[in-house]
Each structure stands twice: as C-alpha cells, then as structure tokens.
Amino acid sequence: MLPWEFSLAWSGACLLAIVLYLRGLRQRRRRGEATGAGRVLAYLLGVATIYGVTQTHYDYLAQYMFFTHRAQHLVLHHAGPFLIALAAPLPVLADGLPIRIRHFSGWRPIARLLRPVYRTLQHPLIAPVLFVGLIYFWLVPEVHFDAMLSTDLYQVMNWSMALDGLLFWWLILDRRTPQQGGLGYGKRIAILLAVIPPQIVLGAYIVFSKNVIFDVYEVCGRAWPLDPLTDQLLGGLLTWVPATMMSAIGVLIILSFLFRDARKEDAADVSHATP
Amino acid sequence: MRRCIMALFVTLWIAGCSDPDWQTKDISGLMPSLAFELIDENGNTVSADQFLGKTTLLFFGFTHCPDVCPTTLSRLDAATQRMDETARDEIQVLFVSVDPRRDDAETLDSYTDAFGPQFVGLTGDKAALDKLTRRYRVTYGYGEEDSEGNYDVSHSSAVFAFNAQGEARLLIRDSDPMEAVVADLERLTGEA
C-alpha cells in the first residue's frame, strides 16, 4: 500500500477526492437525501484503483514492464475514470465542500474563464480525437522512451491520461439528458464506436509486431526476467481487448439511459392523459 | 498550471532542437547528475565526486552474466581503443554489479582487469544499489536458482554517459553502431 515513489499530487488528489465525497455523503444523509450504494461503490472503487496504480508498489512494476504499464494506463485512462464518471459524484462532492469554499465569490469568474476551454475539450469531435490521440502520442517509441526515463515526463504522461480519461467518460456518462444539456445519446454512442478501430489497430500492431518496438524496458531492465516479445504481446492485448470492451460497456450504459428517459416520458404522458 | 505547461513546452522545444548531431540518445536534462556511494574493487567506500573530472560511463551488470555484460564491456573497450590517445585517457567506465552476493571486491577486480585499465568495478548493499538504480530509472531482478546455485539476473543494458562535471549526457544502447559510439564519446571528452 505504501507508495513506490511518493507523489504529493497523486496522494493528495486521491485523499481529497475521498474526504470530500465522504463529507458530502454525510451532509446528504443529514438532509435525508439518499445516495445509491452502487454509485458510492463505483466512486470509491474508481478512486482506489487510481491510487492503486500510481501510489503503491504497483507503480514500480508499471515502470519496468511494458504490459504492466499498459494495465496501469488502462486503469488511469479507462477503468478508473469510467467508474468515477458512472457514479456522477459532482453533487456529492459539492456538498462535501466546506461552506466557506462553496460560497467563495471567485467561483463564477473562474468558471467563466474555464468554460471555453472545457467546451473545446468536450466538443464531440475533439474529445474522441484527444482520447485516442493521447494513447497514440505516449506510445510513439521516442516519446515513450523519454517518458520512461524522465521522472517529470512520466508524471506528465500519467496525469494527462487520468485527466483526459475523466473528461472523456464524464462527457459520455453524463447523467443529464440531452434536454438538460447533456450530449445527445446518438452522438455519445458514435463517439464510443469511433474510438474502437484506432485502438484495435494500435493494439494489433503491437501484438503482431515481430520486433521489440519499445526498447526502453530492455535498456532499463525489466522487473523480472521476461521475454521482451511476450511482454510486448501482453501489452498489445491490453491495449486492444479490454480497452475496446470499455466502449461496448459504455454503449450498453447509454442504451440504459435512453430506455430510462423513454420510460420517464411514458410515465409523464400517462399522468397527463389521466386528469 | 500555466507555468507547468510553459515549462513543458520549453523542455520539449529545447529537447527538440538541441544537438541533432549526437548519434546516440541525448539525455541531457532528462536524467539527474552522477551521485552514488558504493564499494570499489579494493573494498573501500567511494562516492561519485571522486570520479569527476573525466568522462564517465556507467553500466549495471554482474560478473556471471553470460552475454550482455561481456559484450557491452568489450564493445566499450573497442570503442575507447578507436579513440585518439588523449581522449582515451579522459574516459573511465564504472561497472556496477547488481549481484553483490556473488561479486565481492576481488571477483570484480579480476573481472574488470580483463577488459582494461579504464574499467572500475563497483558494488554495494541492496540499499545503495536500489538508490542508484532508481535514480537512473533502471532496475534489476533475480531469476530462480538452479540445482547448482546459478541464477540469472535481469539488469539494464544501457550505458549512461556523464561529462566531466558529472552531468548526464548520453544513453548508449547495445544497438547503437560502433562508429556512432566512438564519435559521440570523442565529442563528449572534447567538451571538457
């Protein structure tokens, strides 16, 4: 459980995420508002997995083996943020903020400043490009090499994956209906499907490569003696299969949102029809 | 945040256009300068400061190593042989054994002597080795022992090159061609 390389940023962010959430839950319980156990579990699990891959001894393995590194990014970019976004924790987190911070008058200008940036990043055409682009970027052999050598670049890499993962799944799993300002369900499904082929191509390229593409693990030594091509094959599979499976799960969840909305509409129609 | 991004851009920019002439991997700014406290071939505790003033090549291995270590060390020896004489004297190779259980001072001494006078064998306890390997983001691990007590050791295959001031400059891979290594080493020793 203890960090391999302690990072105030990772530990602090995870701790803050948990403390705020628990405070929020308590506030809501006092007000008599219930928060689904499933959501609480998804959120805590999401934060815990992110802590697990960045601040435990697992981080050591992720630095010295390709496939464990791919698994780390699978959590940072896909699974962890997916679980967090699925829990839609924003109202709970807001409730968890100390009153003085919640009523801080500076929020409005800050929000106004950040909105254009956020809008751009969450544009339905830009978000998937960013999502896939980052995976590709950090796997450019030269870039990957430098990122694995330099402690600073390594941190930039992992943070960029986690933040982009949060943005992406936040957009996709937004609980707001399209009428409430959420992205249209068709567009969400289109984005989820659009990110599949490039990930398959990349994963397959790595899996079927006969040469070692990422020699940094050779250069720096592996966590334990493992055949480089086996390591690469496993890493490619992780980039390929579970990563694209997440899209499929995403589509199923969007469909459930769609049915939920349709049911609500039906219920509303029925209640209107019977005066 | 903005400062971080600026710093990143500047780093990438500098990295992008700094010295395209290096033929091996330029690691200036990517890795920290030379620092360690280890035990040398005579059993004495030595620190990195004692090795400043010359171009230093750092390599991790173990004397029972069947292939990578002897190949790399003889390649380095061949490379230094091809440099001109003054440059040759300005270079030292530190061979750090990550297998202190089998590599005592004596073993290291006879091992490095076989390669040449510019080779210095070093090792240390687990804590010292862990600190040093972690600093250069390399690792090592031990395979399972066979019936005769032999075991494999996984280690880095890279050679890290530091200038006379101990700053990290180059990373030499075993795939780098000999001409590239010789040219870069000559240039690096010439910088001092």
TrEMBL record, chain A:
Give a yes or no for keyword Transmembrane helix in this entry: yes
The reply to whether Nucleotide-binding figures as a keyword in the UniProt entry is no
Q: Which residues form the signal peptide?
A: none
Q: Which GO cellular component terms are attached?
A: plasma membrane
Q: Which organism is it from?
A: Halomonas shengliensis
InterPro entries assigned: Caa3_assmbl_CtaG-rel (IPR019108)
| Source species taxonomy | Bacteria, Pseudomonadati, Pseudomonadota, Gammaproteobacteria, Oceanospirillales
Source domain of life = Bacteria
Q: Which UniProt keywords apply?
A: Cell membrane, Membrane, Transmembrane, Transmembrane helix
Under what name is this protein listed? Putative membrane protein
Q: Where is it localised?
A: Cell membrane
- Regions that span the bilayer: 6-24, 36-54, 74-99, 120-141, 153-173, 185-208, 237-259
Q: How does it sit in the membrane?
A: Multi-pass membrane protein
Automatic annotation (TrEMBL), chain B:
Q: Where is the Thioredoxin domain?
A: 27-190
SUPFAM superfamilies for the chain: Thioredoxin-like
Q: Which cysteines are joined by disulfide bonds?
A: 65-69
Note the InterPro entries from the entry: SCO1/SenC (IPR003782), Thioredoxin-like_sf (IPR036249), Thioredoxin_domain (IPR013766)
* Residues bound to Cu cation: 65, 69, 155
* Record has DNA damage as a keyword: no
Which keywords annotate this record?
Copper, Disulfide bond, Metal-binding
Any single Pfam family the record assigns to this protein: SCO1-SenC
Instruction: List the GO molecular function terms.
Output: metal ion binding
Family statement: Belongs to the SCO1/2 family.
User: What PANTHER family would the database entry show?
Assistant: ELECTRON TRANSPORT PROTIN SCO1/SENC FAMILY MEMBER, LINALOOL DEHYDRATASE_ISOMERASE DOMAIN-CONTAINING PROTEIN
Q: What is this protein called?
A: SCO family protein
Q: Which organism is it from?
A: Vreelandella salicampi
Q: What is the organism lineage in this UniProt record?
A: Bacteria, Pseudomonadati, Pseudomonadota, Gammaproteobacteria, Oceanospirillales
